[in-house]
Amino acid sequence: MTAPLLSLDGIDTYYGPVQVHFGLTLEVRPGQIVCLLGGNASGKSTTMKIILGLLRPRAGLVRFDGQDITGLPTPQVIRRGIGSVPEARRLFGAMTVRENLLMGAYARSDRAEVLRDLDKMLELFPRVRQRLTNRAGTLSGGEQQMVAMARALMGRPRLICMDEPTMGLSPLYVDRVLDLIATVNNEGVTVFMVEQNASLALQIAHYAYVLQTGRIALAGPASQLARDPRIQDAYLGGEKAI
What we know:
This protein has 242 residues and is an alpha/beta fold. The chain contains ten helices and ten strands. The chain has helices spanning 44-51, 74-79, 97-103, 111-124, 126-130, 141-153, 171-186, 198-204, 222-227, 231-236, and strands spanning 6-15, 18-28, 33-37, 59-64, 67-68, 82-85, 159-163, 190-195, 207-212, 215-221.
């Protein structure tokens, strides 16, 4: 079996005296879309912070491509090949869309290749091309999500981490964003996505974990979890959750 591209092993995380993760362990293998599901306050977004170096766990290891990256500063994590599409997009609202996209390549020095990648992003995200000279803060939520995805891809990541990519989007843009995630994955980028909408995430994922109060409640191939009658209980924290 192929070695994991990303792994979290025995992660314990705290905010002050409050423990958020309890021995969290998961894997993301190359070429997969892996989703981490869970309700509010389950620890999903904290998991993303651990991976990206925004928060250091009290115990456990984060490995990327076999190397320990636990607690590395975020710029170093990005340079190692992990891209980030944060919750609520977090674009530079006063800057143009083009400037936002180029910010995604800030760590690169191959200018000619950066410009070629910019053209590629505009082919992949035609809506973004239409808004290239607009200030990012004037775009709709769905358009901003596309810009955030394209910005992350400008860094040529091997793994892209997406935090709640469908949150706050209209149904039309939800479907479009999911299609784009699948397209990006088909082009060779591994995807780890945190998502609250289980039914949507399981449509495109290969493997899924369900996080409940800092512990993995369910895990397995997405197609199996989609048929599992326990998924809604585990996801919502109901009485039948495992």
